[in-house]
Design brief:
Elements (H helix, E strand, L loop, with lengths): L3 H11 L14 H48 L2 H15 L6 H14 L4 H16 L6 H18 L14 E7 L5 H14 L4 E6 L6 H12 L2 E3 L8 H14 L4 E6 L7 H17 L6 E7 L6 H12 L3 E5 L12
Parallel strand pairs: 1-4, 1-5, 2-3, 2-4, 5-6
Helix pairs in contact: 1-2, 3-4, 3-6, 4-5, 5-6, 7-8, 9-10
Length: 337
């Protein structure tokens, strides 16, 4: 027994690897064991509590970092524009009347490379030039302030009502149209989520009868948002029939809004665009005056290509609103227009 106690003392002391093993005399072994047992119990309690605190601290840090990264990602898409516009400060810092033409030419170039577009850039520069010649702007700071006002006027001058025009008759019908891969189904799902949060009873219509798994994708969005959905019965069902059935159900069962998804189609394809007209007419037969809104989804990475898309869709079905998607890229929805 006496020979075993020193070995036991060594094992007890080696249970703490951060500290060197300590040998105790045999007479001290009972007290040491009691002390070790008590210390180990207390340490486990403290370690457990500290572990919980560390977990929530790390979780909070991760959430904060994630939110920060999302914000940084959103603004990083505009970093090139900010860098190009920073040149304007240098141009106007030492401005004088003799260098007006040169400064305005460089200012126009800075606006062009910042995605303002030729028409808007020329309009802004011509307005500044007229004010300078009329003696209204006499310093670089005054020109800079006038430039800010011009940009704000362009951004807010044409701004109309942005709320959806749902009317007073139920159900209101919203059609979502656009080219392939623009994000129509996802946009429709997000719109459904917004309307549900506002207390609106939403019914979805899976009018995309061409793309594989389009109905299944919309069905997932219906489950996420708590909405009902009408899908095609059979593989050969036509989109106008699906939309017509959905609007009838919405009318009979008192839904607030019917969201109609449609197949992606190139604006240059005449037959597909005519089918979109058929979808619109099918909805109007059930509820005169419907759809209330026809929202065109535009891919933000398409740049200037969104302009002919908007013109053609508007000419064929009459677009009432736009949805810009994928704005975290550098094209920013064809901002050069």
């Amino acid at each position: 027994m006496t020979a075993v106690l020193p070995r036991l003392a060594t094992l007890v002391s080696s249970a703490y690897p951060t500290r060197p093993a300590v040998h105790f005399p045999p007479s001290c072994i009972p007290a040491v064991l009691n002390l070790r047992r008590f210390s180990r119990f207390s340490a486990s309690q403290i370690q457990c509590s500290a572990g919980r605190t560390g977990f929530f601290t790390r979780l909070g840090r991760l959430i904060k970092e994630k939110a920060k990264s999302d914000v940084e990602k959103m603004f990083s898409g505009f970093s090139k524009t900010r860098e190009n516009l920073a040149v304007i400060d240098e141009l106007l810092l030492y401005w004088n009347l003799a260098d007006t033409d040169r400064v305005l030419d460089e200012l126009e170039e800075a606006l062009l490379v910042s995605d303002f577009g030729p028409k808007i850039s020329m309009k802004i520069v011509d307005s500044l030039k007229n004010d300078i010649r009329a003696g209204k702007l006499k310093s670089g700071n005054e020109i800079k302030e006038a430039l800010k006002r011009s940009v704000l006027d362009l951004l807010t001058g044409k701004g109309g009502k942005t709320e959806l025009q749902l009317g007073f008759r139920k159900p209101a019908v919203i059609m979502v149209v656009g080219v392939n891969g623009g994000g129509k189904t996802t946009s429709l799902g997000k719109l459904a989520w917004r309307l549900q949060n506002e207390g609106v009873k939403v019914l979805m219509a899976a009018g995309d009868t061409f793309r594989a798994a389009a109905s299944e994708q919309l069905e997932v969005w219906a489950e996420r948002t708590g909405s009902e959905i009408v899908m095609a019965e059979g593989d050969k069902a036509k989109a106008p029939l699906v939309l017509s059935q959905a609007v009838k159900k919405g009318k009979e069962q008192g839904y607030g809004v019917v969201l109609c998804d449609t197949s992606g189609r190139l604006h240059t394809n005449y037959s597909l665009m005519e089918e979109l007209v058929s979808c619109k007419k099918a909805v109007a037969k059930v509820i005169p005056g419907a759809p209330n809104e026809i929202l065109l989804v535009l891919d933000g990475t398409s740049g200037l290509n969104v302009l002919p898309q908007a013109r053609e869709f508007n000419e064929v079905v009459g677009v009432t609103g736009l949805i810009l998607t994928k704005l975290d890229g550098s094209a920013r929805g064809g901002q050069r227009s």
